[in-house]
Amino acid sequence: MVKKLAFLTIASVCLFFFVPKFVGSHMNALHPRELPVVSEAGSKIHRKLFTADMHADSLLWERDLLKRSNYGHVDLPRMLAAKTGLQVFSVVTKTPRFLNFEHNDDSTDNITLLAIAQRWPIRTWRSRTERAVYQARRLHNLSARANGKFFVLTTKRSLEEYLQKRESGASITAGLLAIEGMHALDGELENLSRLYAIGYRMMGITHFFDNAFGGSAHGVVKGGLSRLGRNAVSEMERLGIIVDLAHGSPLLIAQVLEVATQPVVVSHTGVKGTCDRTRNLDDEQLTSIASNGGLVGIAFFSEAVCDVTVTSIAAAIRYTVDLIGINHVALGSDFDGAVTTPFDIGGLAHLTDALLKDGFTQAEIAAIMGGNLVALLRRSLPSN
């Protein structure tokens, strides 16, 4: 009995104190390939940029984002050192066991064990909505502890006030809350208002499996937008929540674009024109998103761009800009999304330099690296 208790004690200590850090550090890595030196011209342009990225899953991992970490991709000290303008923090509430990009059902859930291992509140163990609430509170708590250095943006007014402070020279940065998959509503459309109230302003319909609202590109049926999903899109537009089509099935993407009256985003993706993978957008989808006034965030990991290099990211951006125009392309890194990237949030100057070498003008680089997302938020966020 004593031996059994000792074993359980050791197992519990490992689960709660060692496993989360081990998993987080190994699943959110930097590619060991050496990065090229940023040119003087690239550095000069980058220092003037307002950088904004549409997707990071940093809230999923139990790192204190107020402190600089030696692993992962995003935290507040690195954001401030890089003079980051805006980071969208997306929340994951469920992923399937043996996750893959081709075929997943909804019968398993990795996040339950992660929530237990990271000592999340018991209410989060069974409720995806509570997981979303908990992670949102983590971001608000970061803001409360940051001594005025970090702001959570929720309205046009808060955005403009923040931008004015930055323009006056303040060393500050900001975040915006998003969700990967409407299964976070626990099947109840009423929970949309609750998540809006706590600050969510961007929401994907699906993630890695089909749900009650629509079909995933990685699901079993890969169907379209359900009646509940149509109601959800309408309600999001009424509230001022941006619809995110990342991970959506081709049919879902087409059907959302048929009914959407506001610009949509694809927060983190690749394009089939440079990397022909399941999760990536084809030319017809890209053109339809641009016609909607939407925004495509180019991701930084291998499944999106086929090679974890700055050059491959820049190539996907160039292809997309040439097809649909400069105003519809942005960054969608997927930092801290259980992916390997060529650099963390402090390395975006490498991408600026790659875009400059590819022939983009300073104004075009400014639009891609953050200006286009700011323009979308100015149009789409609720006024107050």
Provide a descriptive summary of the structure in words:
The structure is a single chain. This protein has 384 residues and is of the alpha/beta class. It has one domain (38-380): Metal-dependent hydrolases (TIM Barrel). 43% of the residues lie in helices and 11% in strands. The protein has 14 helices and nine strands. Strands 1, 2, 3, 4, 5 and 6 form a six-stranded parallel β-sheet that branches. Strands 7-8-9 form a three-stranded parallel β-sheet. β5, α8 and β6 (242-244) form a beta-alpha-beta unit. α2 crosses α13 (348-357) and α12 (310-324) packs across α13 (348-357). The longest helix has 26 residues, at 2-27. It is globular and about 50 Å long. The model is unreliable at 1-17 (pLDDT under 50).
